[in-house]
């Protein structure tokens, strides 16, 4: 570093060689630029509707041979769409069908990217609008089957939305069942595979819940003693509830 | 008045240099490619044909003009330094500021010709008044790019780093507002230090960069929305930032050892 500085020393003339009027002009212009920017009116608000995505061929052409980069850039653009030209659009104003077409087109550029499904399940499916929630949830459900072992977290999230936001337990059960049946990787945690059980119990389908636990124990998919103990406890609890139900009848 | 004579002479030499280095041919080629692309895109469009043509022509011609003039200015200045043209001029009773002003006036005349030609091209697809506004804005945008090229070349003395700096500043100035919107968006984590710092850094950049996103806008051509407010904005912002860049280039020039 010292060598570099030593070699640079004396390369330029001293600062004092710059005339004062040049310094004055530079400082004046810098001050004017800062003042001008400070008094700049914000850009005129213009809430554009989300356009349709370009056809797949055209979208690929726009990547200039680098679809992974466009995948990320397009996602950033899409997520910024609710906040354009200084106006904050409500997520509810976004057309969910058009949104899913964009997300599908972006996923198509780089199917390994989790970003579009994360956005679909965490941002858009969380919008307080039932139609949007259903459309986005179904989109995540469809996309899940293309890569279940990596996309199960997003389906798990929309299953919870189906239960708590949509209050549609059969739909939540359907999603949870899909995770159990198709996400076969050992990296899928036990709670994700057992979500189905929780929903069955919530629906009062005790017989099915009992069969589910029995099937799970018999399949030897559960090896952890603590987990087996936990499932046995739940099984006993279900049997107690079944007896109470029979008695009340 | 006598001190303007060398400025005019240097400006004339700069224009001559542009004419004799086949710059007009390149500019016309860019114009022809841009117009052909616009007509081709219009032929593909099933609706809003003129809007598609105006948008494609505006985008391509603006970018083409910026690239061509940046490379021309950088190459011309490097040749000037290598051929010791600057040394020769400065050995005469010409102040360094006179030399720089002369070069800038010469480049400005070239930029004016390019802006007139390209704005004329957009007249085919957009109202005349909007094309004029677009052309005036293009001229100021080109002047900013020219001054920035001069400044960066005086700083780095080589084309690759100077070109990289010009393009980085140009693209950042055009897109910094989008970065601000994304940074302030509702889905960005709140109360996180590095996000807060990043947003302040982007705000600071927006303060010192020219608001190029509001210059030479394609929506003027497509929707005809440009007006006097836009013209005033272009002239004031262009004037202030051009002066700032010229002052910065002068500081570098006065410190440079020849």
Query: Largest sheet of chain B, if any?
Result: none
Give the N-terminus to C-terminus distance of chain B in angstroms.
Answer: 27 Å
Q: Could you estimate the helical fraction of the residues of chain B in percent?
A: over 70%
Shape assignment of chain A? elongated
**Largest beta sheet: strand ordering of chain A:** 1-2
Assembly type: heterodimer
Q: Secondary-structure element order of chain B, as H and E?
A: HHHHHHHHHH
Kindly name the structural category of chain B: mainly alpha
Largest interface: A-B, 33 and 31 residues
Number of strands of chain A: 2
Task: Profile the largest sheet of chain A.
Answer: 2 strands, antiparallel
Q: How much is the radius of gyration of chain B in Å?
A: 20 Å
The share of residues in extended strands of chain A comes to under 5%
Descriptive notes:
The complex is a heterodimer of chains A (249) and B (258). With 249 residues, chain A is mainly α. Chain A has 13 helices and two strands, in the order ααααββααααααααα. Chain A has a domain at 204-249. In chain A, strands 1-2 form a two-stranded antiparallel sheet. The termini of chain A are far apart. In chain B, α2 (23-44) packs parallel to α5 and α5 (96-122) runs antiparallel to α10. Chain B starts with a helix and ends with a helix. With 258 residues, chain B is mainly α. Chain B has helices spanning 4-20, 23-44, 49-82, 85-91, 96-122, 128-156, 159-184, 193-208, 218-223, 228-255. Chain B has one domain. The A-B interface holds A 11-15, 17-19, 22-23, 25-26, 28-30, 32-34, 36-38, 40, 43, 76, 79-80, 82-86, 88, 123 and B 97, 177-178, 181-182, 184-187, 206-208, 210-211, 213-214, 236-237, 240-241, 243-244, 246-248, 250-251, 254-257.
